[in-house]
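Let us practice reading a record.
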Amino acid sequence: MNNAVPARARTRGRPRGNPPTRESIVSAARSLFLEHGYRGTTLRAVAGAVGVDPALIAYHFGSKKGLFADVMQFQCASALAVDDVLGGDPATLPDRLVDAVTDLWEDADFQQLTVQGDEAAEVIREYLERELLARLVEFLGGRDATARATAVVTILGGLIYTRYLNPLPTPAALTPSEIRHSLTPALRAVLAPRPRAAAPTTAGRRGSPTSGKGAVRDTASRPDRPLAAAREADFHAGFDLALR
């Protein structure tokens, strides 16, 4: 009696050859999103293009929204190379930041994907906050790195929103060189390290107004920590509002 399992039964439910990687699924989905848009693309269509069961797509990405987020993250990383932006001369970092954003939106595929509406805007916001913001904080270093990096991303987020996602007439009419001329000074200002305040020279002296009973707080030499935290929170709130 022949107990051999038929070839069809052995391979059922699995594509021939190596199973597709996440990269190949994202690549196929990207092509379909570009051709048919977000609403016109289904997980079944993506699965058919790759040759897998739709359940595998759902397993890896959770939903069509999750898959689209991966496609947009890939497109952002390809068009906005953070390593290149941060790897040059620190003196020209503001120019490279502005150029990176304007060049990103000159990419035809990226423009096509961003017309998908709220889904695209949400992914862009998350990419700027989680990738660019985090890398800037690490790059800048120092006690105020988070506040400085958040200010940079807030400025760039405002540019993206008012020029590309929800264009206003004046920002949309500016050329890339005019944008650079307008925003580079602001970026340079927030990127500059804040000088440390000089230590008080009268601290500890007998009868000093900055020590002992009835001492007057030296607000010029000691930063107000609650105020600094509030300013940092404002940066985060402004950035979040700009891309919503």
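A brief commentary: The longest helix spans residues 118-140.
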